[in-house]
Amino acid sequence: MTLEDFDYDLPEELIAQTPLKDRSSSKLLVLNKDTGEISHHHFKDIIHYLEEGDALVINDTKVIPARLIGQKEETNAVIEVLLLKNIENDNWECLAKPAKRVKLGTIVSFGNGLLKAKCIGMKEEGIRIFELIYDGILYEILDKLGTMPLPPYIHEKLEDQNRYQTVYAKEVGSAAAPTAGLHFTEELLEEIKNKQVNIVPVTLHVGLGTFRPVNVSKIEEHKMHSEYYSLSKESVDILNETKANHKRIFVVGTTSVRVLETVMNKYGKLVPCSGWTDIFIYPGYKFKIVDNLITNFHLPKSTLIMLISALAGRDKVLCAYKEAIEHKYRFFSFGDSMLIISNNNKN
């Protein structure tokens, strides 16, 4: 398949620039992936699709203020560094801009030396390996010096940094938010729990693999960057019990999908584990466990629209997107939501 197969025209005014005051008041488009039927709701209506004994899988990763603006020590040139993933100890894989100014041995200083980054490795596509040098606790320093790494299509200033964070964010280490989860409120989650639906956390630290553009015409040639994931025994036990009881698994976000499908591909069943995944899901992929998905509206030609096209069918997805545009849905990170649901309700 070609990259153009996943393109669509989106009016710029439908790109959401700011989050809604009430997270759960966003619109919800429901797509039946078996029939192609589409209906329109609000996100808080998601509770009506969940039944006692179902499982709701969430990605509990927490976004760090990963965007840093510093100066090259030798020349005072301004360098932007985006922390992507912690490799080991204080060595981080980062995106540097302008990358051509960052060579081996280059030191970038932030906050008058409160934090320094020394380049110890060079990769393609502007990626550099930095050793971070500091005194104290890194995440406290990042809270002082860094900002949330909002996508480039968002031009408005984010007044409340926590709005680019899910209410259930817990495991620190993400370079971007798992945005499908931004619609949940504490109150809505409590209602879901009261309905005896199990809320099941998994972790995937969102990095370059999720949001890097596809730059090849044949999508099969695209290589994903690896991202760290973790699946606990407690979560595995709940999910296996859900399946054994012939109840449904609803997955929140493409990142959670990638965790579950990675584990199923590797072990043939859900087992407690952690590691790195570069799974790339596009049409033709056979899902091992995911049937029902809560997601946002994704960029044209992105790996994310390819993943949901693998789940629901490219034509059905593009038809749903067309209808969402006609109904003035808000798109991308701070935009509205979509539920892809299956008639095959019992796993």
SSE layout and pairings?
Blueprint: E1 27-32, E2 38-42, E3 55-59, E4 61-63, E5 67-72, E6 78-88, E7 91-97, E8 107-110, E9 115-122, E10 127-134, H1 138-145, E11 171-174, H2 186-194, E12 198-204, H3 208-211, E13 227-231, H4 233-244, E14 249-252, H5 254-267, E15 273-277, E16 292-296, H6 303-312, H7 314-326, E17 337-341
Parallel strand pairs: 1-17, 3-12, 3-14, 4-11, 14-16
Antiparallel strand pairs: 1-2, 5-6, 5-8, 6-7, 7-10, 8-9, 9-10, 12-13, 13-15, 16-17
Short description:
By secondary structure, the chain is an alpha/beta fold.
What does this structure look like?
By secondary structure, the protein is an alpha/beta fold. It has 2 domains: 243 residues, QueA-like (3-Layer(aba) Sandwich); 79 residues, Beta Barrel (Thrombin, subunit H). The chain has 7 helices and 17 strands. Strands 2-1-17-16-14-3-12-13-15 form a 9-stranded mixed beta sheet. Strands 5-6-7-10-9-8 form a 6-stranded antiparallel barrel. A hairpin with a 2-residue loop joins strand 6 and strand 7. Helix 6 crosses helix 7. The protein starts with 26 loop residues before the first strand and ends in a 6-residue tail after the last strand. The model has no long low-confidence stretch (mean pLDDT 96).
Could you list some keywords that capture this structure?
17 strands, 347 residues, alpha/beta, Thrombin, subunit H, six-stranded antiparallel β-barrel, QueA-like, 7 helices
